[in-house]
Amino acid sequence: MISALTERDDGQVLELIRKHGGKDFQARQISHWLYRHGAKSWEDCRNLPKPLLGSLAAEHSLRSCQLGTVDISRDGTRKMLVQLSDGEAVEAVLIPEGRRQTLCLSTQVGCPVGCVFCASGLDGLRRNLTRGEILEQVMLARELLPRGSKLTNLVVMGMGEPMLNLDELLPALARIHDPEGINLGARRITVSSSGYPKMIDRFAETEPAYNLAISLHAADEDLRRELVPHARCSVAELLASARRYFERKGREVTFEVVLLGGRNDRIEDARAMIAALDGFPCTVNLIPWNPVDRIAGLQRPSEASAENFAERLRAGGLNVTLRRQRGADRSAACGQLRLAMGTA
Questions:
Q1: Which of the residues are catalytic?
Q2: Helix axes of 10-19 and 50-57: crossing angle, nearest 10 degrees
């Protein structure tokens, strides 16, 4: 079976090159062609000897994923269907905003968390993505960028729960951050999680220090369990892990709240959040719910309601951002990613 080079670390690539009769410096050359120049095939590695490339090609590919359908929203957001070698697929989203180009990538095929407002977990979890499959989403997204543009930010907020796939995510992020790889600064990389304090603690031990976002959604214990039914920890435990992250890394944590009209955007919900986050250096990112075809009984709050909720939090001393909807006409907005491309 042919394996992809994106699944291997530098030491493994070096061992592979030696096995096929190459010289040590050629391992670095191949990595540069793959990650810096975006080589898609061995033929793209133009300064390496053909006998070496032929020997490698017989047993290994550079990549394992293919770009499928690309849906382009009216606002320029691009939703990518990434086809995996076993027939599975995930979605990733490229979001332009001025000179900023942000990629939202996935870490699992499906999702086990089952948030009541999110499309990604409607059919459960199929499997974890490999490090190569995570990394190749970035490589495929770069190929869609307009000439003269470059990827500026990465948010691990697509399909799946990143903290449940750290064994594959962390090596992928290391390659994305590596100056000899894709070379994206750690401060431009944000990983989002719905919980899992022990894994957040492990993430806090990682170098370099990436940004952390936590999907809080509600500070009230009972309400959060309604919205995130498979949550494995209490609100208090989750906030404690966020504080430990801040103390270890000195990086402000972002708390994400998907706002549901009449469900978690009430005065009492604002009061509970202000009390829970009092004195904690953080930002609350409010995300008005993006409707999903297969989810009934929820509603997107009005603009006025969302603004009022944001102002209540600000009046309580919290730093608040209100996310602008992007890509919703192509089911590419936050919470709308799913296992198969929509046709809307």
A1: 91, 334
A2: 110
